[in-house]
Amino acid sequence: MTDTLLTEQTLAAQRPVLFRYALLQLRDSELADDAVQETLLAAWQSAAGFEGKAGLRTWLIGILKHKIADHWRRSAREAVAPIFGRTDEDDGEAEVDDYFMSSGHWNGGPKVWADPEAALKQQEFWTIYEVCQNNLPPKMANVFMLRELVGLDADEVCREAGLSDANYWVTMHRARLRLRECLEIRWFNNTKQEKNHA
Amino acid sequence: MRSCRAISALVSQGLDKELSLRERFSVWLHVMMCTRCRNFQTQSRFIRKAARRYTDELQSRLSNKP
Ligand SMILES: [Zn+2]
């Protein structure tokens, strides 16, 4: 096993990604932390089972998924709806592309946003952000969150979500177009925000 | 001259992989003259930043729960 040496440091380095994944699923910091610790311990104990082919993170997330499933099995309470991972649902028929006109020009299109940095500091912005994120179709939300919230690489996301390269680019672009439009309508163009600044 | 549809797709891809020199050049040329694509570029970067911060926000909200 010289080529796939698993050190404590290598494992520990994956902790933040695993924690974000667990947090989004379990919606509880302590539970998430426990699940990650169990995962790292299990990984450490079965380091020989790691073949290095699928990639370390993919392997670890596979273990973590089992730990999360175990948790819901043991726990008496209903599983909370995870923030992402509802991949069983279908996103329905291909959405109509109404962001662009047939000429390829924007239909409407991005306006200038006033002071986005300030928005990050406002609690109300995060409520709107969450609404917009929840409005993404489930599969699209899953891909977007694996990439941008959990922090997996593009090829890791493709493996996790079973996507081709081409599908990945289209999905991520659509997610950004949708989020952008939603934030523009609900936050940046909203008069309420101007009042807050007045 | 490529369309806004094509340029915005390249802008999106550029967040996830290194574009070719030719692609980068066509994006650069286009956004110099197109405000909407320039806005899209800024906004998609902002969305990435917000998304990365979202889990921290969620975590602090969860731990502040009574
Ligand atoms: Zn344009």
Mind explaining what this structure looks like?
- The complex is a heterodimer of chains A (198) and B (66).
- Chain A has helices at 8-13, 15-26, 29-45, 56-74, 116-119, 123-134, 138-150, 154-161, 165-188, 191-197.
- With 198 residues, chain A is mostly helical.
- Chain A folds into two domains: 8-74, Rna Polymerase Sigma Factor, Chain: A (Orthogonal Bundle), CATH 1.10.1740; 93-188, Arc Repressor Mutant, subunit A (Orthogonal Bundle), CATH 1.10.10.10.
- Chain A is globular.
- With 66 residues, chain B is mostly helical.
- Chain B has one domain.
- Chain B is built from three helices and no strands.
- Chain B has helices at 4-14, 21-33, 35-63.
- Chain B starts with a helix and ends with a helix.
- The interface between A and B is large, with 40 and 35 residues.
- The structure holds zinc ion.
- The site of zinc ion (ZN) has 6 residues of chain B, from α1 and α3.
| Oligomeric nature of the chains | heterodimer
The first-to-last residue Cα distance of chain A is 64 Å
The largest contact between protein chains, plus residue counts on each side, is: A-B, 40 and 35 residues
CATH level 3 topology of the largest domain in chain A: Arc Repressor Mutant, subunit A
Total domain modules of chain B: 1
Q: What is the total tally of β strands of chain A?
A: 0
Mean pLDDT of chain B: 92
Distance between the termini of chain B: 57 Å
Counting helices, strands and paired strands, the structural category of chain A is mainly alpha
Helix coverage percent of chain B: over 70%
Q: Catalogue the unreliable spans of chain A.
A: none
The domain count of chain A comes to: 2
Q: Describe the global form of chain B.
A: elongated
* Radius of gyration of chain B using CA atoms only: 16 Å
Q: Going by CATH, what is the homologous superfamily of the largest domain in chain A? A: Winged helix-like DNA-binding domain superfamily/Winged helix DNA-binding domain
* Count of runs of 4 or more consecutive helical residues of chain B: 3
Alpha carbon gyration radius of chain A: 20 Å
List each distinct ligand once.
zinc ion
Largest sheet of chain A: none
